[in-house]
Amino acid sequence: MPDRPGALGAVASRIGAVRADVVAIEILTRADGRAMDEIAVEVDRDLLPLLLAEIEEVDGVVVEEVRTLPNGMRDRRLDAYRTAAALLEARTPQELLAALALRVADELESSWVAILDTESELLLATAPSAARRSPSAKANAIRN
C-alpha cells in the first residue's frame, strides 16, 4: 500500500465495513513510498471475496497473498508460556525432550518434529503434528 498517513486506516475501515475484525498487524517493509503490511483478520469465510474486493478499492492497495488459518489466530505469548510450563514439568531428560518436541510441533504447526543428537546421530524424540494427534497423545521419547 502507499506509505502515507491514513492508508492503513482506510484499509482497516474497509475491513470493518464487511463485519471483519483486525486481530493483528505487522509492518513488514517500508521503501520507495510503499509499505508492505501483514494484516490478520477474522472474517466469515463466505465474506472473504467481498473483503478482498473492498480492500483493493483503497487507492494503491494490492493484496499479494491470502492465507487461511485452520485453527485461527494464536497468541504467541501464550505459546511461549505453555512451552515453558511443559519444560518445567518434565522430570527426566526423556520427558524434557518429549515435551520440547511436542511444543515445537504445536508452535510451528508442523507435520512432525524430530530431535536429533548430531554427534551420535541418534533420534532422541519425535512428535506428530497437532492436527494428527488426539488431545491426550504425547510425544514419543526414544531412549538410547
SSE string:
HEEHHHEEE
Topology, number of strands: 5
Shape type:
elongated
Largest sheet: 3 strands, antiparallel
Count up the helices. 4
For the record, give the distance between the C-alpha atoms at the N and C termini, rounded to a whole number. Answer: 55 Å
The unreliable regions are: 129-144
Determine the mean pLDDT: 84
Q: What helical percentage do the residues reach?
A: 25-40%
Widest β-sheet, arrangement of strands: 3-4-5
What amount of the residues lies in strands? 15-25%
Radius of gyration: 21 Å
- Report the structural category: alpha+beta
Walk me through the structure:
- This protein is of the alpha+beta class and 144 residues long.
- 34% of the residues lie in helices and 24% in strands.
- It is built from four helices and five strands, in the order H-E-E-H-H-H-E-E-E.
- The chain has helices spanning 7-17, 48-55, 76-89, 93-108; strands at residues 21-31, 34-42, 112-117, 122-128, 140-141.
- The protein has a three-stranded antiparallel beta sheet with strand order 3-4-5.
- Helix 3 (76-89) runs antiparallel to helix 4 (93-108).
- The protein is elongated and about 55 Å long.
